[in-house]
Specification:
binds threonylcarbamoyladenylate, five-stranded parallel sheet, binds magnesium ion, ten-stranded mixed sheet, alpha/beta
């Protein structure tokens, strides 16, 4: 357990970081905090260590892992080329919640890239993650440290809950900051392509590099998503979850009706709302994600709230929705996945 993180340079001397770095070099599995979510790390060049990641998570083998680096110079060993727009994005957003998909050089094991020609790389900004990556000196393959399909872990307890027995070490530095995974952008083509919305917003990307396309597979089911991980049901609580579309008074009224109907039908009902509307609902469990007026707070609390629904044992979950811009775009992407696409539209007045 590491107290409030100082800077990465200082943390490299911390005995827990030293120990964890040694374990990574020896091919062990170490879970660690990043600014987005906790990751489950292993040496990306070790066939055996990488295999254990897939086994521990129950992750399908066709879903590639992100490689994490602590120094920019490590990029040269991993990728064949950094196109100019990729370089712009690196300068603007690294270290930070942005993963770049780039042509690889075959230096990480095939399982990491799931046989693709490309590799996803990111440099996280969390001082504990940076210190660990720098101290270990190895490129670290790290998916989110949850069991496949469950909400990603934003606290060390979540990692323990999902993977406790399957891992060798866990660095606990308290709750993560962003609360959603990194944004994944493919920069191998002429126009950068957004594959997964996350901690860096589409608006921020466009401000930095101009045109950015959005993978059509993200928005509808007509195209398969280009990022293999985006095709799975994900982040899902155990109860049947529905998103309720609408705004203002109409939204609140519709959720109240739906909750009442479900309660009368004998279901245990959970509601995901915001501080602004918290007092307006009654159900078996009502959780505020954050403040609607503070989108970052909603992102930060989303996965914890989804886990809370499981703990409360609710079997029917109603969730408020948000206008899909800024970080709310990423929040809505995760909510849609968690709900397996189930949407109810609140009719206008
Ligand atoms: O914030 C994050 O990115 C966290 C922390 C731990 O860094 N990691 C994370 O990893 O979310 P994971 O494995 O849960 O999600 C990785 C996503 C998946 O959707 C995967 O399909 C995609 O990135 N991905 C990885 N490599 C790719 C590639 N070469 N091409 C396209 N998509 C790729
Ligand atoms: Mg994940």
């Amino acid at each position: 357990r590491i107290g409030q993180p100082a800077d990465a340079e200082e943390l490299r001397k911390h005995p827990a970081i030293r120990e964890a770095a040694r374990m990574l070099r020896e091919g062990k599995l170490v879970a660690f905090p990043t600014e987005t979510v906790y990751g489950l790390g292993a040496d990306a060049r070790s066939e055996e260590a990488v295999s254990r990641i897939f086994a521990a998570k129950g992750r399908p083998g066709d879903n590639p892992l992100i490689v994490h680096i602590g120094h920019l110079c490590q990029l040269r060993d991993l990728v064949a080329e950094l196109p100019p727009k990729g370089e712009l994005l690196v300068r603007r957003f690294w270290p930070g919640p942005l993963t770049l998909v780039l042509p690889h050089r075959g230096t990480v094991v095939r399982k990491v890239t799931a046989g693709l020609e490309t590799v996803g790389v990111r440099m996280p900004s969390h001082p504990v993650a940076l210190a660990l990556l720098q101290e270990s000196g190895v490129p670290v393959a790290a998916p989110s440290a949850n069991r496949s399909g469950r909400p990603s872990p934003t606290e060390a307890d979540h990692v323990w809950e999902d993977l406790g027995e399957a891992i060798d070490g866990l660095l606990d530095a308290g709750p993560t900051g962003v609360g959603l995974e990194s944004t994944v952008v493919d920069v191998t083509g002429s126009v950068p392509l957004l594959l997964r919305p996350g901690g860096v917003t589409l608006e921020e990307l466009r401000e930095a590099v101009g045109e950015v396309r959005v993978d059509p597979g993200l928005e509808g089911d007509d195209h398969p998503p280009r990022s293999p991980g985006m095709k799975y049901r994900h982040y899902a609580p155990e109860g049947e979850m529905w998103l309720v579309e609408g705004s203002g008074e109409t939204l609140v009224r519709r959720i109240r009706e739906l909750a009442e109907d479900a309660r009368r039908a004998g279901r245990r009902v959970g509601i995901l709302t915001t501080e602004e509307n918290l007092s307006r609902y009654r159900a078996d469990r009502v959780v505020a994600l954050g403040r609607r007026s503070d989108p970052e707070s909603v992102a930060r609390n989303l996965y914890r709230a989804l886990r809370e629904m499981d703990r409360a044992g609710v079997d029917y979950i109603l969730a408020e929705t948000f206008p899909a811009e800024g970080i709310f775009r990423s929040v809505m992407n995760r909510l849609h996945k968690a709900a397996g696409g189930r949407v109810i539209r609140a009719e206008g007045p």
